[in-house]
Amino acid sequence: MTKIEYTGITLRKKPRTNLRGLLILYEKNFLKLKKIIPSFENNINMSYLLPEGNSSSKVTLKFIKDSKYTSTLLINQSEILNSNLINTRINVAIYHDLRMAEVITFNGKYLFWMKNKYPNKNMFHKDEKFQWNKFLSEWLIFSKKEGLSDQLIKLHALL
Fold this sequence. Notes:
By secondary structure, the chain is α+β, with helices and mostly antiparallel strands. Helix content is about 25%, strand content about 30%.
């Protein structure tokens, strides 16, 4: 008779939620947003272009709600040349006192729980909330690095 530890059978542990990692991601997203929008107090709505292959898509950042401690920012990325593509819409809650930014809705889908049962009727991944915020983090890095002004600037060179 063999003991269970020698048979190569491993008991799978229940996955743990990583609340600490999610909160760190919220803090990083706040800092990345701060690099793109230096002042949240002025509620400056802005737009810029992001390169996508041979064309560009337009990004608009618009503050929807504002209070002393929180703001809601709507990020909308729309394709200029190809109207068949779906626009990306992200609502971000910005917590000024905590210095955190959290994705509230992504393309019209709302998610409350940090961890989902799988399968579910909306077909959300188990860590969908983390994935949305990770996408925002990577998208903000790309926007800061590759973002283009949507206004034409005329330059006059002296020879």
